[in-house]
Amino acid sequence: MTGDTGRVALITGASSGIGAATARLLAARGMRVVVNYLHSETAAKEVVAGIEAEGGQAMAVQADVRDNAAVDAMIDQVHDSWGGVDVLVHNALTPYAIKPFRDMTWDELGGKLDDEMKAAFTVTKAVLPHMTDHGGRIVLLGTGLSRRPRAGMIALGTAKAALTQFARYLAQELGPLGITVNVVEPGPVAETKISNVLDDEQKQRQIAATPMGRLALPKDVAQAVAFYASADNTFMTGTTAAVNGGMAMY
User: Fold this and answer.
1) Which of 76, 129, 187, 233 is 20 to 30 A from 7 (CA-CA)?
2) Residue 47 is part of a domain; what is its CATH number?
3) Is residue 195's pLDDT more than 60?
4) How is 163-225 classified by DSSP, letter by letter?
């Protein structure tokens, strides 16, 4: 038995990649895991089946995390089955344009900012009532691109920079309630949908710039998330963990 046994963790965007790896790891550590998804029902149910096959507890719940009504319905479903959410891992990635600023419209840049912040705002608001009474852990997935620009990634990098500052303000306000708020900022991660936009030459350049000699895997990022999500992590809040193999040090 660990301090995490029986705690309820909601992972948004958990049907694949970092979200799925995080769901599996938190379940292996005894948490009851909510695998949120938007479109990928089959993949989400496969994640749940894999967790259950290992003796864990999980459920797949569809919701667009930008939609207040959908998120409220998801939280109600979780509450009816398991009670309130103790751990929120906000990993869901909304679409974004990859192009230079000169070619970008305000709808593409401003739309990504709006989607990013609305999703984080909505899911955090939804889990707070339970956490206010019981304490909790909030982990937001950022990106190293919010600190180190890369060509064509201004929409994602700018939106995630806003998310990181949002987390700091939450950490300041919610700390007295026993709620920690932290950010995990991966560098390039292999075996994810985002990694598919890079060609082999770009990936090799990134590997060459990484002291650890490889790109991160989803499970590497999940380990950092799990640390922040743990019941044992009572005093670290408002921090950012860079999971990039030393590609950038700050």
Assistant:
1) 187
2) 3.40.50.720
3) no
4) HHHHHHHHHHHHGGGTEEEEEEEE-SBSSSTGGGGS-HHHHHHHHHT-TTSS-B-HHHHHHHH
